[in-house]
Amino acid sequence: MGNCGDPAILRTLRGWGPGNLAMAVGAVLRGRRRSLAADAARILPAFQPPPVIEGRENIPARQAFVLVVNHFQAPGLWVGMVALAITRAVAEARAPGGQELHWLGLADWRWLEFRGRWLPNPLSAVVFPRALRVWGCVPTPSDPADVAGRVRALRQILGYLGRRGRGAAAEPQPVAIFPEGTGTIALQEARPGSGAFVQRLSNHGFPVLPLGQYQGPDGRIVIRFGRPFHLGEPPPESDLTLDDWARQRMMGRVGALLPRELWGVYAAAAERGLAEQTGAP
Known about the structure:
Elements lengths: L6 H10 L1 H13 L5 H8 L8 E3 L11 E4 L9 H15 L8 E5 L3 E5 L2 E4 L1 H13 L3 E3 L6 H15 L13 E3 L16 H10 L4 E8 L5 E5 L16 H14 L11 H12 L3
Parallel strand pairs: 1-9, 2-7, 2-8, 3-6, 3-7
Antiparallel strand pairs: 4-5, 8-9
């Protein structure tokens, strides 16, 4: 969700006030589980001006879902604050027991690559997984070769979504992903593998809920939930790989919720997504 040295993050954290900062640091040090939705409610008064929330009626009240969000990074605003606002909006629309939103987050920041191996930032490799677990997020490895880490993440995600097995949530709970993986203004390419990953979850029966966030003309952040849908399967005539096709389709539905000037590399997909969004799901 951004580099830890980013001035926007530092300004945001200062705006939380000493009490909330002490709470966050203490929680990470103790490693004790906290509710992200409840802590978002405590911190969000620092988000000024408050964001505009649209499409709340599209949030499933009970069914688990996969929230797919563009990684819009407004100048001077840490996207983590937007994630808290999204978390709070989802909690307010959900039935009791399923109000937590579980974000996928990198377990470490990539430092450098040496002889084909990823070397993580040693500080982030210790702090990030601990912080993610405290607030019920899912640590995902930054190293594409870490197959075991990805399997663990998938098992945890399916547990939150309510699939049977050890660690499954008592009530189905949604998960959220930023497929682009880094801050941007207009849409940029979703990370390789993200489409096939979301398509696999969709094939398990979990709908995809697209969300577009951007900065409106008045400077306020707009958070717009679209209609849930299932990715399905690529048509027989498609010459795209499954991952490429799924990335096109899910990012097209996200793009349909954004102004046209932010469609970026997914302009054609967003045009199709707009037709789908306004028609039958």
